[in-house]
Amino acid sequence: MKTLTSDDLKLLESRYRARLVNSLSGVKSANLVGSTDKEGRENLSIVSSCFHLGADPALMGLIFRPAVVERHTFENIVETGQYTINHVNGEIVEKAHQTSARYPKSVSEFDATGLTSVYENNFTAPFVKEANVQLGLKLKKRIHLEVNKTELIIGEIVLIRLSEDILKDDGFVDLVSANSVGVTGLDCYHSINKGDRLSYAKVDLPITKLNLDGEKL
Amino acid sequence: MKTLTSDDLKLLESRYRARLVNSLSGVKSANLVGSTDKEGRENLSIVSSCFHLGADPALMGLIFRPAVVERHTFENIVETGQYTINHVNGEIVEKAHQTSARYPKSVSEFDATGLTSVYENNFTAPFVKEANVQLGLKLKKRIHLEVNKTELIIGEIVLIRLSEDILKDDGFVDLVSANSVGVTGLDCYHSINKGDRLSYAKVDLPITKLNLDGEKL
Question: ipTM of the assembly?
């Protein structure tokens, strides 16, 4: 095993350290956040910081650094209270990655990358038509994390749009069929292999495999 | 597309809703959190809520529900200020999943599942020997998220142990060779396919693919 201490980390060149530390939490989800400002100007930004926070109410967290490329998105969310989260899939990886370029606020990343904005159910934030999982969220809470000056945005999922057939009998969503990708580090995109669903773990009972509908094989 | 509104979500059976909403953030990392209580009794718990929070200092977040299976882990972290995060890999998925069974506090999930605890560099929390990525963390901040009564634990990475050869020239970590798995929903474990690293996105410049060391192909 190779070992690095916090002293070693301090001595690393900053981009090297960013690539390393961004790899350490494991595989992350790749999502596109759609938003508009008060004037309705669209913004679209790829994020790998989206995480599940709770199912009832359905809450999701997003981390924003204070002054970086995602700032337009952060400002829009605070300004309008609405945003969308859209799964990146294998068909749109390069377009999705391109949204991380530093476009001026007047440029819609939808226009710049060729992704398609759609508006649904009176939601003012744009969804990504090409995504197989599209979520509409309302801002619930913004928390400044003083420990490193990041911002935690907590949103409630108020609209879910899914491709037909990926929602299974017991509520599980088949993200392999959705072609949702994972990201490692800052820049590496991975498709995921067909997975094994495992039974609820109990003391003194062996684990069994389940099919995608949650039934024992 | 299939559409669900927040009214639809409210009407769902609770376990169905948990499976659905846990799927919506996309693929998550699967990690084992190692800890001890003040008396040195070991605990090991699988989590899918670990997320990258910042590279300098190297910070990671973890979400805990207030009164569930991971509670021993949460209490231990608050009690001792130390814990480890260890990537689940394809070789240990079933043992890792089994740690989610409700063992009493007197039982070490290492003993119950056959995973191996190791102690390194005067760190009091146990690492998982079988993991190819092992991290030692010190508690920096605990934040109660009133919005759904969950707890956010923020830790600083103070020790990194990696398998030889997975750390690439520019700091990127090859998590495919590490065999680190992703999880979707509550119970589905996926290996990830060899990924494409993409060049830093710039306005008016096409994206190119990089090799694992970050060099243009």
Answer: 0.96
